[in-house]
Amino acid sequence: MNETGTTVFDTQTVNSWLDGMLAPLMQLFDEQTPIALIGIRRGGVDVGTHLLAELKAQGVAVEEELGELNIAFYRDDFSSVGLHPVVGPSQVPFDIEDKHIVLVDDVLGTGRTVRAAMNEIFDYGRPAKITLAVLVERQGHELPIRADVVGHSLDVGKNEYIDLDASTMQVSVGKKS
Amino acid sequence: MSLADPQFNALGELHHFIDIDGLDKSLLTQILDTAEGFAGVNDRTIKNVPLLRGKTVANLFFENSTRTRTAFELAAKRLSADVLNVDLVTSSTNKGESLLDTLHVLEALQCDMFVVRHGESGAAHFIARHVSPSINVINGGDGQHSHPTQGMLDMFTIRRHKGDFSNLCVVLIGDIRHSRVARSDISALVKLGTGEVRVVGPRTLVPSDVESLGVTIFPTLEKALVGADVIMGLRLQKERMRTATVPSSGEFYRTYGLSPERLALAKPDALIMHPGPTNRGVEIAGSVADGKQSVILEQVTYGIAVRMAVMSIVMGNATNLRRAQS
Q1: pLDDT tens column, A84-133
Q2: What's the pLDDT score for residue B1?
Q3: CA-CA to B104 of 20 to 30 Å: which in A94, B222, B277, B307?
Q4: What residues of chain A lie within 8 A of the CB of B304, using their CB?
Q5: What Å distances lie between residue A141 and A110, A144, A158, B81, B201, CA to CA?
Q6: Domain count within chain B
Q7: CATH value at residue A105
Q8: Are B67 and B194 within one domain?
Q9: Which pLDDT belongs to residue A80?
Q10: Under an 8 A CB cutoff, do B50 and A124 touch?
C-alpha cells in the first residue's frame, strides 16, 4: 500500500492472474462448438484482447476478432442515475448464433454489468453457451451470477474501487472518493 | 438564447432540446458520440434497446411532416418507449381547445416527453416554458426558427464521412431565409469549428445579416462550389413565402440548381446533402440526388440514431434532476 492508501498490483502479478485463467478456460471448450470472445468496455476489452492473443498462441480455434460491448443502453440504473457516458459503440464482428461466447470483464462485483451484457448479447443472436471470465472477482454479488473463470479474488469493501490500467496492466485498489 | 435558457435544468444539464444556439461544442460532441453508439444498434437484426422502457413519448405535430414524425417515432420505439402520435393539425385545437389545455391533457395522460413540430417560430420554446418540470420537450421544427435534430443528424453524417470539421468547407445553397434547417446547420457547423461555411442563393432568400453568424455569402453558386467538401441543398420553402421571392422554379434551377456540371467544381469527394423532401429539377438534378456522392438517404437513416441519442440524454438528465431534488 502506498501513502495515498492505494494498493497496486504490478504488471507481473496481473499477468500471472491472466495466465492462470487460460487452462481453466480451455477446459470449458468442446470441439464441436465454435468459440468467440466478447469483452465489456472498457476493462473487459483489455483483458479480452490479452486472452484472445494467448488462446491463438495456444492454437485454439477461435473467432479472429474480439467482440466489444458497450452496455450503457442496457444498464438497469437509467431510471436512477440516467445515461452513462457512451464509451464507443458495441461491435460484434461475427455471428453469435450457436457460438460458445466467452464474456470477459475486468472486475465482477454486483453482477449487474454482466446481466446487461447478456441481455445485449441476446439481441445479436442466440449463442449456444456463455462462459464468464473475469480478471478479478470481488464481494458484493447482487444477482445470481458467478464467473466460470477467475484470475484472482480480492477481498475489498463496498467503499473501495478496483481499477485496471490497460497501458501498464496494473491493478490498483483504493478508497472511493 | 437568454440567461433563462429553458433548455437547461437546475443542474445545468440539457432538459429540453429546442435550439442549437444555446449549446456548446462539448454538448454537441456528446450528442454525436452517443448517436454513434445507437448507430450500431440500428445495424443489428434486433434494433431495440431497453433504455426508455415504461416511458411515453408524445409526438405533437401541429404541422404535417411524415418523415420527421416517422423518424422520431422509430427512434422512441427503438428505445422501447411507448409512442403516442397526436395529430394536432386536425384535432381538438380546431375545436377551440387552447394549446395549453391540450398540453395539460397530455400531461394527465402521464407522458414523459413531447416532440413538438409547429409552423410558428418559438412554439417549442413556449411549450417548454409551460409544461410540468418532469416533461422533456424536443423541438421537431418550429416555423423558420430551428430544427435542431436535423442539424445534429447533418453533423453526424458529415462527421462519419469527413471526421474532423476544422478543415472542411461547407456550402449551403438556396432558401436560407425561410429555412430552420439552415439556421440549425449553420449554428452547429460554427460551434463545431468548421473551417469555412459558405452560403449562396437569390438575394431575396439570403438575409444580409447572415454573415454575423460566422458564414460568408458568395455571389454565385459556381464560386461557392470551388473547393467545397460538403454541399447542402435546401428545399425551396414555398409555403413560407408570402410574396414572390423567386421568379420561377425553372429560373431558380438555372442559377442555383445543383447540376452535374456545377458539382464538378467542388472537390471530387464532396458530399451532397439535402434535408428533403427534394424538389428535383429545382434545387438539385435528379442524377446528382441519386449519384455516388449523395448521402441524402444516409441522412434519413442517421436521423434515427441521433434522435435516440437526444431522447436518452435529456431523459437521463431528468432522472439526475429527480435524484438531486429527492
Answers
A1: 877 678 999 999 999 999 999 999 999 999 999 999 999 999 999 999 99
A2: 41
A3: B307
A4: none
A5: 4, 7, 11, 30, 64
A6: 2
A7: 3.40.50.2020
A8: no
A9: 80
A10: no
Rounded CA gap, A116 and B271, in Å?
38
Q: Answer yes or no: do A73 and B41 touch at CB < 8 A.
A: yes
What is the domain extent for residue B180?
148-295
B129 and B237 in a single domain? The answer is no
- This complex has an ipTM of 0.81
Domain that holds residue A139: 7-175
Indicate whether A67 belongs to any domain: yes
Nearest to A29 by CA among A68, A61, A57, A67: A61
Q: Does the beta-carbon distance from A90 to B41 stay under 8 Å?
A: yes
Please, where are the H alpha helices in chain A? 11-27, 43-57, 78-81, 112-122
Indicate whether B8 belongs to any domain.
no
Buried (b) or exposed (e) across A20-47, using 16+ Cβ within 10 A?
Answer: ebbeebeeebeeeebbbbbbbbebbbbb
Which residues from A are below 8 Å from B39, CB to CB? 89
Q: Looking at beta carbons, which residues of chain A come within 8 Å of B38?
A: 73, 89
User: What is the pLDDT tens value at each position of chain B, 326 positions in all?
Assistant: 444 688 999 888 999 999 999 899 999 999 999 999 999 888 888 999 999 999 999 999 988 888 899 999 999 999 999 999 987 876 555 555 678 888 888 899 999 999 999 988 999 999 999 999 889 999 999 988 999 999 999 999 999 999 999 999 999 999 999 899 999 999 999 999 999 999 999 998 999 899 999 999 999 999 999 999 999 999 887 665 656 567 677 888 999 999 999 999 999 999 999 998 898 999 999 999 999 999 999 999 999 999 999 999 999 988 877 777 77
Give the three cell numbers for residue B208.
444580409
Same domain for B121 and B199, yes or no, is: no
Please tell me the total count of domains within chain A.
1
Q: Identify whether residues B157 and B265 lie together within a single domain.
A: yes
If asked whether residues B184 and B272 sit together in one domain, one would say yes
Is residue A19 assigned to a domain?
A: yes
Counts of helices then strands in chain A (DSSP H, E): 4, 8
Task: Kindly state whether residues B220 and B313 are assigned to the same domain.
Answer: no
Residue B14 in any domain: the answer is no
Q: Which chain B residue is nearest to residue A116, measuring alpha carbons?
A: B50
Q: Is residue A86 part of a domain?
A: yes
Q: Which of B37, B48, B323 sits opposite A81 (nearest CB)?
A: B323
pLDDT at B222: 96
Asked if residue B168 and residue B44 are part of one domain, the reply reads no
- What is the predicted pLDDT for the residue at B87? 78
Q: Which residues of B touch A120 (CB under 8 A)?
A: 49
Say how many C-beta atoms besides its own lie within 10 A of residue A153's C-beta.
Answer: 14
Is the Cα dihedral A96, A100, A106, A109 positive or negative?
positive
CATH code at position B102: 3.40.50.1370
Which residues of chain A approach chain B closer than 8 Å at the C-beta? 70, 72-74, 78-83, 86, 88-91, 119-120, 123-125
Indicate the angle between helix axes B66-78 and B148-162, nearest 10 degrees: 70
